[in-house]
Every structure is written in structure tokens, then in C-alpha cells.
């Protein structure tokens, strides 16, 4: 049968990084992968993480429990909802540590496939992170799109989004980006979230919040949890939150994440957790320890938490400064258009609205690497390269 195995195309973003690494030009700029870079273009280890590393020295290499570190899981729930939330006080969350955000989505997908049935459709935004489709189709679901982006106005297509969600069969599963939508950087306003929440409630949809960028919109986890709190706290809905600490703690390679399934009662949560444990056992047996210990050390210390908040502001402020600087430079070089959409976008990415040919020209002629849909990781910009990038974008769009 091996002779019948087809060749699967490599993941475009990881492939782009490999191509960037092979490029020998001194001018090259990597705006592809969503990984934070400091003002010198270097990976950044958060100060709070450096403190946590010292605190957990000598913690050894024993297995964690199947569901992961309990203090980590509880810390994640408190982070999402706050210590005083009834969801926390009534222990209504079934949780499991996961292999970062991806593993968290996968665990929820197999949980739903096994215990909610794949006859329910999964709705994901158009566009979205390309792994969403792969994860839910891989678990056996029929995956459909709901409208999200109006490419004409470079804005949220809210009317169509509402229409599409209203058309979902009752009980469907809907994937929502908690904040910093990838790739567009466009999130619903609070008022729009309220309308989405009403549809989710009226149609008994099962919401899954993909929370990979908490803290990247505003620099504050509390603010960026607004939609999650509104759904589960104010509307009293049940659903799931898939948390990742890749970006907001810079723990990309440590694979730190958590699944939170918000239920109606303590007993439901206990049963859900028992199933998560059963599923996790046959998938990874038990999750990795190091990164979860770092995150737990941060959650458990007032001082480190304070530092983490500063670190989040450091990252989000630098990204916002670069966002503005890019647009200032585009305008300075008279790039056609207002580029106001780039300023209005949130989170780690900018969605430029270039054609695939323009993206290709930037890569081949100017050594500037970005996703084919012209999503750029703003953190790849710095004082030394932003003018060059703006000049080159101007040149390809003015051709
Ligand atoms: N969801 C979204 C929307 C993402 O952009 C990412 C990372 N690119 C993830 C989830 C998961 O990332 P990780 O597995 O590294 O936590």
C-alpha cells in the first residue's frame, strides 16, 4: 500500500519560514510566521518567563497526571473568568492541559466527535487559521464556512455573518476567535458579540472559542476575555475555550495549552473531565511538563503575574507602534490607498489586501516573506526594516 500513498503538500507557513531561512540576502524580512520578535528582530523570552524559569529549577522530569498540572488548569480557569466568577466558585469547568492551542482544539474535536456526534456540522469563519478545517475534518466532521470578511471594505461582514449563523442547523458547532482574529485582525465589537451570543443561544449552537492571542489586542487578558465572559458568564452558555500560551507567554516550542469545557453543573464538569482524561490517555498519555510549570509559576506569584502584565503590554505596544509606522511609511511613499484598515486591525497580524502576485513579487524581488493571502506578522517589523518594507510594498502595488 505504501506505493499508493499520495504526497501531501507541506504546510505553507512552515514552508515559507524554511524558504526564508534559505534566502542569503541581507535585506530579507520575515513577516510570515506569527511569532513575536523584539525591536532587533530577535525572538524574545518574556521577563516573567525568565523569573519563572528560576523558580522551577530542579523540578525534575517525572510524568504529569493525564490531565496535566491541576494548578495550571485551575489557574487557566481563573484567568478566563476571574476568581469570583460563579463558573469558578461552582466548579463548572471540565479542563485538561493540552499540546498547546492546536492540541486543545484537537481534544475538543475528538470529545465532540465521540460524545456529541459528527452529524453536527462545524462552522468556521471565512477566512480562518487553516488548521481549523484540518482539525475538525480530521475528527470526522463536515466543516462549513460562515461569512466573516468583506474584502471590498476590508472589514467585518457582519450582516452576512449573522445571516449565516442564523442559517446553521440547530445544535451546530461554531468556532469563534476570542480576539485578534487570524488572519484578518478584525474582531466583532462588543455590540456585535452580543448579537452573535444571542444567535448562539437561540439556536443552541455549541461555541468553541479559539483563544490563542489573549492579551495581544489590548495588552490585558481581562479585556481580551470580554467575549468569552459575555458568553459563559452573562449568557450562561455552555461551550469550550481552547487556550494557548504560545504567543502570550512566548512559549511556542513548549506546547502549553488548556481545554476548558464550561458546563451547567459540577457533576457535568466532573464527567466531562473524566472523558477528557480518557481521550488524552490514548492520544499523548500525559502532557509535557516544563512549559506548564512555567505558566503555573507565573499564575501563582503576584510578582510574576505583575511582570507578565508588563510583558504583554511590551509586546502589544510594540506591535501597535509598528502598525502605525508601517502605515506612516506607506503614506510617505504615496502607496495608493489609505491603509487605514491596517491601523484598525487588532492583534499580532496585519491583513494588507495585496494580490497573490504582489505577495510573490515581494518575496522574489525584494526578499520580503508573508503568507499568500498578504497576512503579515507585524512583530517582524522594526525600526531598521519598516521603511524598506513600505517602499517595496509601494513599488509592487504601483506597478
Ligand atoms: N489558533 C489560532 C487562530 C492560531 O493562529 C494558532 C497559532 N498559529 C493556534 C490556534 C495554535 O497555536 P499553538 O498550537 O502554537 O498554540
UniProtKB/TrEMBL annotation:
Gene Ontology molecular-function annotations: L-aspartate:2-oxoglutarate aminotransferase activity; pyridoxal phosphate binding
Keyword Disulfide bond among record annotations: no
TM helices/strands, residue ranges: none
Cofactor: pyridoxal 5'-phosphate
One annotated Gene Ontology cellular component of this protein: cytosol
InterPro entries linked: Aminotransferase_I/II_large (IPR004839), Asp_trans (IPR000796), NHTrfase_class1_PyrdxlP-BS (IPR004838), PyrdxlP-dep_Trfase (IPR015424), PyrdxlP-dep_Trfase_major (IPR015421), PyrdxlP-dep_Trfase_small (IPR015422)
Enzyme class, broadest EC rank: transferase
Gene3D superfamilies according to UniProt: Aspartate Aminotransferase, domain 1 (3.90.1150.10), Type I PLP-dependent aspartate aminotransferase-like (Major domain) (3.40.640.10)
Acyltransferase listed as a keyword: no
Superkingdom: Eukaryota
Record key words, sorted: Aminotransferase, Pyridoxal phosphate, Transferase
A Pfam family this chain is assigned to: Aminotran_1_2
PANTHER family registered for this protein in UniProt: ASPARTATE AMINOTRANSFERASE (PTHR11879), GLUTAMATE OXALOACETATE TRANSAMINASE 1, ISOFORM B (PTHR11879:SF55)
Quaternary structure note: Homodimer.
Misc: In eukaryotes there are cytoplasmic, mitochondrial and chloroplastic isozymes.
Name by which UniProt lists this protein: Aspartate aminotransferase
Amino acid at each position: 500500500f505504501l506505493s499508493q500513498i499520495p504526497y501531501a503538500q507541506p504546510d505553507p507557513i512552515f514552508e515559507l519560514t524554511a524558504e526564508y531561512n534559505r534566502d542569503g540576502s541581507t535585506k530579507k524580512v520575515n513577516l510570515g510566521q506569527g511569532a513575536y520578535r523584539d525591536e532587533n528582530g530577535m525572538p524574545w523570552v518574556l521577563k516573567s518567563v525568565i523569573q519563572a524559569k528560576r523558580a522551577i529549577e530542579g523540578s525534575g522530569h517525572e510524568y504529569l497526571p493525564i490531565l496535566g498540572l491541576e494548578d495550571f488548569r485551575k489557574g487557566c480557569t481563573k484567568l478566563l473568568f476571574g476568581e469570583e466568577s460563579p463558573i469558578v466558585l461552582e466548579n463548572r469547568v471540565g479542563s485538561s492541559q493540552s499540546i498547546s492551542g492546536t492540541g486543545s482544539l484537537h481534544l475538543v474535536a475528538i470529545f465532540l466527535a465521540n460524545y456529541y456526534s459528527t452529524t453536527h456540522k462545524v462552522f468556521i469563519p471565512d477566512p480562518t487559521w487553516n488548521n481549523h478545517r484540518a482539525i475538525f475534518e480530521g475528527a470526522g466532521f463536515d466543516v462549513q464556512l460562515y461569512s466573516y470578511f468583506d474584502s471590498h471594505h476590508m472589514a467585518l461582514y457582519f450582516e452576512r455573518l449573522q445571516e449565516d449563523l442564523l442559517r446553521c442547523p440547530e445544535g451546530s458547532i461554531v468556532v469563534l476567535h476570542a480576539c485578534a482574529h487570524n488572519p484578518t485582525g478584525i474582531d466583532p465589537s462588543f455590540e456585535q458579540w452580543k448579537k452573535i451570543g444571542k444567535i448562539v443561544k437561540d439556536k443552541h449552537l455549541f461555541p468553541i472559542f479559539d483563544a490563542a492571542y489573549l492579551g495581544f489586542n489590548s495588552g490585558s487578558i481581562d479585556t481580551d476575555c470580554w467575549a468569552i465572559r459575555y458568553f459563559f458568564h452573562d449568557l450562561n452558555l455552555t461551550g469550550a475555550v481552547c487556550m494557548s500560551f504560545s504567543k502570550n507567554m512566548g512559549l511556542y516550542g513548549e506546547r502549553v495549552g488548556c481545554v476548558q469545557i464550561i458546563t451547567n453543573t459540577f457533576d457535568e464538569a466532573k464527567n466531562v473531565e473524566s472523558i477528557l482524561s480518557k481521550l488524552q490517555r490514548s492520544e499523548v498519555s500525559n502532557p509535557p511538563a516544563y512549559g506548564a510549570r512555567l505558566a503555573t509559576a507565573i499564575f501563582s506569584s503576584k510578582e510574576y503575574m505583575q511582570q507578565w502584565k508588563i510583558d504583554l503590554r511590551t509586546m502589544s505596544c510594540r506591535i501597535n507602534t509598528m502598525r502605525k509606522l508601517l502605515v506612516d511609511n506607506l503614506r510617505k511613499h504615496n502607496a495608493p490607498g489609505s491603509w487605514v484598515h491596517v491601523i484598525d486591525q487588532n492583534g499580532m497580524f496585519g491583513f494588507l489586501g495585496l494580490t497573490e502576485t504582489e505577495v510573490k513579487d515581494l518575496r522574489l524581488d525584494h526578499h520580503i516573506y508573508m503568507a499568500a493571502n498578504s497576512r503579515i506578522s507585524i512583530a517582524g517589523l522594526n525600526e531598521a526594516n519598516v521603511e524598506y518594507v513600505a517602499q517595496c510594498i509601494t513599488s509592487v502595488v504601483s506597478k
